[in-house]
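no rush on this but wanted to send it before i forget. what follows is a protein written twice so to speak, once as letters and once as structure tokens for the fold. mainly i need to know what kind of three dimensional shape the backbone takes. thanks a lot i owe you, the record is right below.
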Amino acid sequence: MYIIEKKQSMIDNFKMNICYFSSARDSFEYILKKKLSEKKILIPAYIGFSTNEGSGIFDPIKNSGIGYQFYKLSKNLEIEKESLFKLIDDNQGNILLLVHYFGFTDSNIAEIKEYAKKRSMIIIEDCAHAFFTFFKKPIVESDYYLFSLHKMLPYTKGGMLLSKEPLDIKDSFIVNPFEYNMYEISQKRVQNYNYLKEKLESFDNITLLRPALKDVVPQTLPILVPSEAKRDSLYFKLNELGFGVVSLYHELIKEVTETEHENEFYLSRHVLNLPVHQDISFTDIDKMVETLGEYIYE
């Protein structure tokens, strides 16, 4: 009998527990209903809604019927750590949802996760925008990870659920995101972000929400513009001229109130997300910046 086999044979060793769904929201609703139905969930108050799509985060929570409570974010979309710690202390053994907006992780994410784990929280990480950020260093330390594949790859739909423990479910949707070169796509997104960021530094009336990437692969480049009216006019004008910008999230769910969440409403009224995806060339970015410059000072 060998002590060391000639060839690896442990089929479950280092295997990722992955299941595919038609969307990330379907995977979220599945784990809430099938795994965590008796729990309460702490969620960030920056949650968007659209008439056509509803809310990818909040609809599964409503459909599952579980209790929820919002935690606060700052004007730069960082978690208000001490406020969240108080909520965790009051809800030990429940669920904490962490959302990696626009592909970025919170500057205090490691401390927050450590604090939550010590209080027996079940941690779900929403990586709908952070597929490439996660797979730069795919360490599975939280309980569940949700990925929206069509937001980062050229699919019309597709969600992926990654679990720390084995999943007792079969794929409900077949797709293979690993057919794409993740390294090359990540590099291209980072290059586009840095190139666009440099071009935007000459604008004195916009704020870069995330000036530095660090270990992040971005979904978009988020900027803050002086007013809601200016943001809206730029959104419509740029899209009219062929530049696919979005505003995440220009409308918040009605359950989030402005009296309790001023920062989140400020963000929703000022944010504009500029595209940096892998299909974009530097020439495309030059044209977008030139067009932005023509209209932002009007």
Observations:
- The CA atoms of residues 44 and 71 lie 5 Å apart.
